[in-house]
Amino acid sequence: MHPRLILLDARLQNPETGEALPYTALSVGPDGRIGALGDDREIRALAGPATTTLDLKGATVTPGLVDGHIHPAHGAELTHGLDLSGCADLNDVREALARHRKTLAPGAWLHAWGLDPNVFGDRPVEAAALSPVLDGVPALLLLFDAHSMLASPRALELAGVDGPRTFDQAAEVVCDDRGRPTGLLLEDAACELVERAAPQPTRAERRDRLAAVLRAMAASGLTGGHAMDANGDSLDLYRELDEAGELPVRLRVAPWCQPGADADALRALIELQGTGGALWQVAGVKLFMDGTIDNGTAWLERPDCHGESTHAFWPDPAAYTHVIGELHRAGVQTATHAIGDAAVRHVLDSVAKARAGSPGGVRHRVEHIETVPDDTVRRFAELDVVASMQPTHCCDFTRADHTDNWSRRLGEERAGRAWRCRDLWDAGARVVLGSDWPIAPYPPLGVLAGARHRRPSRDLTLPPHGPDQALTGLEALRAMTVNPAYASGEEAVAGRIGVGYRADLTVFGGDPVTAPAVELPDIPVRLTVVDGRVTHRAADL
Q1: What percent of the chain lies above the pLDDT cut of 90?
Q2: Which of 115, 167, 233, 259 is most buried by a 10 A CB count?
Q3: Which part of the chain is the Amidohydrolase domain (predicted)?
Q4: The overall pTM is greater than 0.85
């Protein structure tokens, strides 16, 4: 059988060393795997009449970059409307909202996303701060963490939310001292009260949004992602796109397990494992141990400066431990959102208990890990728990001088141990990098850069937050190639360039290992290949 694809005049990079492999060309078989490595003459001779042959003119080829934590379907729904992520203060937000309001039809809902709580400064995060811009307009403004939103008075009225509510999980309709909602809604259960009152997009609109997002991800150099949700009909949308040949990235999908999950719910999650298609598969289960530090819903060993972040997302943390044990015994990987030190510690304790009761090779994960003490760091390697981290959150939502909301809430000691990528790496943990899009931008070169420079992307002249926690260029590359493959138990077929490995490849117009970190996002993505098929190609290639 002739190759599906041939790449010539390439610098094939070894993610173990950062050096070039002793070959300049490769071929991809009909099965989507790398079939041969060699020099240009040897590989060119393998071509058949249907083979696509591309001369890369010396471009650097790496194993395909994989985002270790991403929300494609959910993010495609959340990121419609007005992008507020570039607003630096309240005046910027008010002006952007006023301009956008003029484009709306009478009675239409205003949707916005990416709102940074730091724009409120010392003021409470509440809808009154945006009056009179939002007066009379039903509006939902998603905060950057996607765990909270601001609802305008008109939106609250249409949803029938006029006071506090009680939920089965950690969530809150924030109210003033007279019991009136301030507009701030914390966590999904509270947000959904108002979201469901807004007009909903059609299925066709959601499919088109998702397809557009995935195409843009491929163009940014992503070949895969660990999708941390399977809400609504997202699995059906992935299936539909895959069968139509319109899925340009390889996805591993982890459906959520929420507090209150009973034996039947766990059985359904276990039975769902392994289902999928050519380029997507259900693999693992996503859980939450806490919320976020910025909105006071993380789980900390000591309260934050407001006396908040003292409770677990699971009202009964022992129930979470039981669920981890059940999934572990079934051979199912778990990925737990744990931001605060108490949350991370409880996850590790639960994994340790599960392993003691049923030894096995399941590679569990902790997602985010924003602040942890020394004794927690070393346990990741001891328990073979993957450390899934998003350093661009540190870059763009905190400040080196600790004047940001996240740092002020934690205080100097805990803010000084922010996103300990270096310490976890040096302790032997498998660090996997990702964006958590739509929380932060998904282009992987930006993620690689942030892990190295730890500076705000909108002003790279500002000082870094915790420069001692930076990774090297080679380590960052490994954390988006080799380590995601290990986290998935696929290190024998993914994460490297070798015969028999998947032909998931990213091609750059520069070296992502040696390029200066602040210049890395500007390196052009020349080609993206998934399963041996071109999903993005520069116009001149």
Answers
A1: 95
A2: 115
A3: 53-536
A4: yes
**Residues in contact with 45: Cβ distance below 8 Å, sequence separation at least 6, in sequence order:** none
For the segment 37-83, what is each residue's pLDDT rounded down to a tens digit?
A: 999 999 999 999 999 999 999 999 999 999 999 999 999 998 989 99
Long-range pairs for 95-100: beta carbons < 8 A, 24 or more residues apart: 97/130, 97/133, 97/134, 97/139, 98/133
pLDDT band at 361 (very low <50, low <70, confident <90, very high): confident
* pLDDT range class, residue 391, cuts 50, 70, 90: very high
> In terms of Cα–Cα distance, which of 233, 275, 277, 285 is closest to 254?
285
**Furthest CA-CA distance within the chain:** 79
Q: SS3 for 472-499, per residue? A: CHHHHHHCCCHHHHHHCCCCCCCCCCCC
Cα 49–chain centre separation? 41
Inter-axis angle of helices 374-383 and 341-357, to 10 degrees?
A: 30
pLDDT tens figures, 162-187: 999 999 888 999 999 999 999 999 99
User: Tokens 């173990």 — which residue?
Assistant: 16
Contact 6, 53 (CB under 8 A): yes
Q: How far apart are CA 510 and CA 446, in angstroms?
A: 14
CA triplet 438, 443, 446: central angle to 5 degrees? 105
Backbone angles phi, psi at 28, to 5 degrees: -120, 125
Q: Give backbone dihedrals phi and psi of 346, rounded to 5 degrees, phi first.
A: -65, -35
DSSP assignment, residue 468?
G
Classify each residue of 447-474 as buried b or exposed e, where b means 16 or more C-beta atoms within 10 Å of its C-beta: bbbbbbbbbbbeeeeeebbbeebbbebb
